[in-house]
Design a protein that fits this description.
single chain; 344 residues; alpha/beta; Rossmann fold; 7-stranded mixed β-sheet; 16 strands; globular; binds zinc ion
Length: 344
């Protein structure tokens, strides 16, 4: 079969490969891939970020944002059947650790990921454990269903803490998940949505997806600009997706007294945090890691099914898998939002 794999360490090293079609073992199933999205995590693998380099055995088929049809099941599989339309939760959780047992499988102590720890979905077929199968209604288009995994993070970020309903919300960093958060916040009844991103394409899409304001943090003082449009109050909820030190400072600096600071983007290095300011202004700091399994999936699927959110504009490119390397190039050049890859 055709696949797109990380074949060599260092930056780049992404190439088409032709591994055999895998067979499912006990508790596993094989998905015939219909669509798969390129994610920021795939870009981290492209750049061979240290935490990836430490754990990945090469060659590895990439990709974990996927929708497809169940084509074969291994022994003992009960959660899916042949012909089911399925998206994948990307956190393969163990089910037996303390967080898993307490209903917080998104914080599993032993999480593994398709496309990192096992072969992923940039291929015509992928084999995964049945525990990560999310069954979709058959009328949900695969191109939307392949975006449920990242959209689930956006929905999770909008629903944690104080939520977004009737609140002023900052979405800092308008990559695909930030843009999805803008759309989700609009659908969930946010009062005011402020987007921030240095990339003009992303700011333009943020406005189309429902933002009331879109600021370029490289051109304006973000904290001052947000103060201006919120009657000097700051935002009720700042959701930080960029992972950049400036984004972190701008977001936490823009939170209203007692508001929410929700961190989604992982900073590459330790950051300074003024705890005296934190004490005086009392923001609640909320960690958004992945999605709630399966609450975020339920909410995300409903928002798409009910057409409260349209993911189509965020899906900037739909490419054949054979042109997958181009998808990476488009992201590197800042020309793509979310490219999807379609196996032939
Ligand atoms: Zn992803
Ligand atoms: Zn676990």
């Amino acid at each position: 079969m055709l696949a797109l794999s990380k074949t060599a360490d260092g930056v780049g090293g992404i190439a088409l490969t032709e591994p055999d079609v895998p067979d499912p073992g006990p508790g596993e199933f094989r998905l015939k891939v219909a669509a798969a999205g390129i994610c920021g995590t795939d870009m981290q693998i492209y750049h061979w970020a240290p935490r990836m380099a430490r754990r990945m055995a090469l060659p590895r088929i990439l990709g974990h944002e996927v929708s497809g049809v169940v084509e074969a099941v291994g022994a003992g599989v009960t959660r899916v059947a042949l012909g089911d339309h399925v998206s994948l939760e990307s956190h393969i959780y163990c089910g037996v650790c303390v967080p898993c047992k307490r209903g917080r499988a998104h914080l599993c102590e032993a999480t593994q990921y398709p496309g990192i720890d096992i072969d992923g979905a940039f291929a015509s077929h992928v084999v995964v454990p049945e525990v990560i199968a999310w069954k979709n209604p058959k009328n949900l288009p695969h191109e939307d269903a392949a975006m449920l995994e990242p959209f689930g993070i956006a929905v999770h970020a909008c629903m944690e803490g104080s939520g977004v309903t009737d609140q002023s919300v900052l979405v800092n960093g308008c990559g695909p998940i930030g843009l999805m958060a803008v759309a989700a916040a609009r659908a969930l009844g946010a009062a005011t949505i402020i987007a921030s991103d240095p990339n003009e394409l992303r700011r333009a899409q943020a406005l189309k997806s429902g933002a009331d304001h879109a600021f370029d943090p490289s051109a304006v003082d973000l904290v001052a600009a947000i103060s201006d449009v919120t009657d000097n109050a700051g935002v009720d909820a700042a959701i930080e997706f960029s992972g950049q030190p400036d984004g972190f400072r701008g977001s936490i600096g823009s939170v209203a007294k007692g508001g929410d600071f929700r961190l989604v983007g992982a900073p590459a290095h330790p950051l300074e945090l003024d705890l005296t300011q934190w004490l005086l202004r009392c923001p609640r700091i909320v960690n958004i890691h992945g999605r709630r399994i399966w609450e975020s999936w339920e909410s995300a699927t409903k928002l798409i099914e009910n057409r409260a959110v349209d993911l189509a504009p965020i899906r900037s490119h739909v490419l054949p898998l054979s042109e997958g390397v181009r998808g990476f190039d488009l992201i590197l050049k800042g020309e793509a939002l979310k490219p999807l890859l379609i196996p032939g």
